[in-house]
C-alpha cells in the first residue's frame, strides 16, 4: 500500500485501484466522498472492472457506516469507468451512474457544466474541462477546498491528450483562475498523490504545455512532417513505451498550430 491509498481530505477518501502502469501511474484513484455524519456517500470513478477493487470500495463505504448514494465519472476511460455499472450493482439496487457521455451512464441523469450534486448533504459543483478527453469533468468540493480533476491534472507526470489542445489549454487556464478565486486548498487527481499547492501545480502544467508546443513548432520548422517524426525529436528523452501516447498529444498539438495559422 502506498501513501496514495487512504489519502484525502475531511470528506474525500482515496481507494487506490491495483492497475498501475506507465499510463495510470500508481493506479486509478477511486474517491469516496461524504459529508460528516451523512449516511450516503458519492463514489467518483469506481475504476477498472476488477471485482476485488470494487468490493474493497463497497466495503470501505460500509465501514464508514454509509451506503453508496451515487456514482460519478470524471470521464469515460476504462481505467475510471469500466467497473462503474458492476460497482453500482454491487452497491445496491437503484444506484445510478452519472457522466457527461450518455454511453457511460446508468439511469437517465447526465452530468454537465453548472450541475450541483447534493447527495447526502454534500455539495459538489460540476465543471466541464475538456482536453484529456472531450467528456472530461472537474468536480469542486467547496467544503474542503478540493478540486477533483480526474485525468485533467495528475499527481505527477503529464496528461495524454485525446481531445483538442486548444480545449485543454482553456481548461487549464480556467482551473488556474478558478483555483485562485476560490483559494483552492488541494487537487485530488485521478492518478498519483494529491497536490496541496494547486496554483503551483497548474502553473507547472501550463508552462509544460507551452514549452512542448514551442518544441513541436521547432521540430516542424526543422523538417518533421508526421506526428511520429515530431515525437522522435521532441520525446527523445522519454521512455519509448510512452511514444504511442505521445503521438496522440503531438497530433493534437499539430492540429492546434495548424488551426492558428
Ligand atoms: Zn483518462
Radius of gyration: 18 Å
Uncertain runs: none
CATH fold-level label? Metallo-beta-lactamase, Chain A
Q: Structural class per helix/strand content?
A: alpha/beta
* Lateral strand order in the biggest sheet: 1-2-3-4-5
Number of domain units: 1
Query: How confident is the prediction overall: mean pLDDT?
Result: 95
Give the full name of the CATH homologous superfamily: Ribonuclease Z/Hydroxyacylglutathione hydrolase-like
- CA-to-CA gap between the ends? 49 Å
Sequence-ordered SSE layout with sheet pairings:
Elements: E1 12-16, E2 29-33, E3 40-44, H1 51-63, E4 67-72, H2 78-81, H3 84-91, E5 97-98, E6 116-117, E7 124-128, E8 137-141, E9 146-150, H4 165-182, E10 186-189, H5 198-221, H6 227-234, H7 243-259
Parallel strand pairs: 3-4, 4-5, 9-10
Antiparallel strand pairs: 1-2, 2-3, 6-7, 7-8, 8-9
Helix pairs in contact: 1-3, 4-5, 5-6, 6-7
Residues 75, 77, 132, 151 line the site of zinc ion.
Folded structure, characterized:
The chain is an alpha/beta fold. The chain is about 35% helix and about 15% strand. The protein is built from 7 helices and 10 strands. It has helices at about 50-65, 80, 85-90, 165-180, 200-220, 225-235, 245-260; strands at about 10-15, 30-35, 40-45, 65-70, 95-100, 115, 125-130, 135-140, 145-150, 185-190. The protein has a 5-stranded mixed sheet with strand order 1-2-3-4-5. A 5-stranded mixed sheet has the order 6-7-8-9-10, with no helix packed on it. Strand 7 (about 125-130) and strand 8 form a beta hairpin. Helix 4 (about 165-180) runs antiparallel to helix 5 (about 200-220), helix 5 crosses helix 6 (about 225-235) and helix 6 (about 225-235) crosses helix 7 (about 245-260). The radius of gyration is 18 Å and the shape is globular. Zinc ion binds near residues 75, 77, 132 and 151.
